[in-house]
Amino acid sequence: MTTENFAAQAEILKLARVLGTAPERLSYLENVDAAELQAFREQVTDTLFDANLAALERMAMASKLVPSPILAKIAEKVFGPLLCARIAGLVDVSRGVDVAKRLKPQFLSDVAAELDPRRASAIIARIPLDTVVAVAGELVRREDWITVGRFVGHLPDPTVRRALGVIGDEALIRIAFVLDDKSRIDHVLGLLSETRFRGLLRVAAADEDLWAPVLDLLTHLSEKRVEQWSHLLDELPPALRERVQETLDQAS
């Protein structure tokens, strides 16, 4: 299995989410370049979000007339998560933040699952830290790795660091596998202690289903990080240690 397979598999999982289908139905795409799969996924997402754009823009404009506390109630009781996700990128940033912080974490989690974070990045970055951590915890409880992975690249370091506290080792491995911006992996893992990273490797070693995600994770570490934690890699069971070395050799 090559590193390219890992990337394509992750993109297939995310594309299946967008299309509302099972990943197994898209297995024929495993040999397609991962970058092309990502571009196609983003095109599909743009098409979905731009449908009925004029009507959504009118709704966003009309929402300015409603006080934030009332609008938050309307969002939960009338609009629902899908419509809120479509409108989020069209409202004023300060207004969007003010409404978002009044919504229940469970509802915000529903919205997050429907949201294209590229369109609401400024709002996401300014949502209060406690709210983001609560939503992250809810998404982890739901095992919604894809949604968490789409938001990591839009959050400041202090928020990511706090969110890591409610994300277990197995969850972190699975989230990293479907992270939208894989260039962030090395930086995010750099926020972890050596003890926490050792915990990730122990969890992966104990569950072969996690080998592919952890191998993919390791290919996105910088040479400096690999050197820093090389003694931890040496602690792995022989079979996994051999796979790690093969994967790192391919990636270098």
Question: Would you write up a description of this structure?
Answer:
By secondary structure, the chain is mainly α. It has a domain at 177-251. α4 packs parallel to α6 (105-114). It has 17 helices and no strands. The longest helix is centred in the N-terminal third of the chain and has 21 residues, at 68-88.
Characteristic terms for this protein:
single chain; 17 helices; 0% strand
List the helices and strands and how they pair.
Layout (H helix, E strand, L loop, with lengths): L2 H17 L14 H17 L2 H10 L5 H21 L4 H8 L4 H10 L6 H6 L2 H13 L3 H7 L5 H8 L4 H9 L7 H5 L4 H13 L4 H9 L3 H6 L1 H4 L4 H14 L1
Give the structure's gist in a few sentences.
70% of the residues lie in helices and 0% in strands. The protein has 252 residues and is mostly helical.
Q: Regions with pLDDT < 50 over 5+ consecutive residues?
A: none
Average pLDDT level: 91
Number of strands: 0
What is the subunit organization of this protein? single chain
Strand content: under 5%
Rg (C-alpha, Å): 19 Å
The SSE order reads HHHHHHHHHHHHHHHHH
| Backbone structural class | mainly alpha
Q: Terminal Cα separation, in Å?
A: 16 Å
Biggest β-sheet: count, sense, barrel? none
Helix content class: over 70%
Task: Enumerate how many helices there are, as a single number.
Answer: 17
Shape: globular
